[in-house]
Amino acid sequence: VAPTTPVCEVPSSAMTGTVVELSCKETDGSPPSEYQWYKNGVALLEKTGTGNSRAANITYTMNKKSGTLLFNTVTKNDTGEYFCEASNGVGLSQKCSVKRMQV
């Protein structure tokens, strides 16, 4: 079953230095969807455990299975327009509407 349009939870504003979690979920897709977050139209990289994420200055953890995008400490650089895309290899992938987060 192709995924339906996911529901995105993106806070409209966040305080610098706080923990912020964005979530994305759709429940109709079978097999279960994987989720990809985008910021300002650019796909966010999944953080890997190889230690090179510091070099890339990645301040978040993206979980493609659960659809969460977790910022341990948000900075002004994290301000932007976010949306996520659900895909499970069946039918077309689905995106939620873009939401702006102001830090």
From TrEMBL:
Q: How does it sit in the membrane?
A: Single-pass type I membrane protein
Keyword set includes Cytoplasm = no
Ranges for domain Ig-like come to: 3-103
Per UniProt, which keywords does this protein have? Answer: Cell junction, Cell membrane, Disulfide bond, Immunoglobulin domain, Membrane, Signal, Tight junction, Transmembrane, Transmembrane helix
Spell out the GO cellular component terms annotated for this protein, sorted alphabetically and separated by semicolons: bicellular tight junction; cell surface; plasma membrane; protein complex involved in cell adhesion
Q: Which InterPro entries match?
A: Ig-like_dom, Ig-like_dom_sf, Ig-like_fold, Ig_sub, Ig_sub2, JAM2
**Protein localization:** Cell junction, Tight junction; Cell membrane
BP-aspect Gene Ontology terms: leukocyte cell-cell adhesion
Family to which this protein belongs: Belongs to the immunoglobulin superfamily.
Q: What's the name of the protein? A: JAM2 protein
- Organism the protein comes from: Pluvianellus socialis
- Which gene is transcribed and translated to give this protein? Jam2
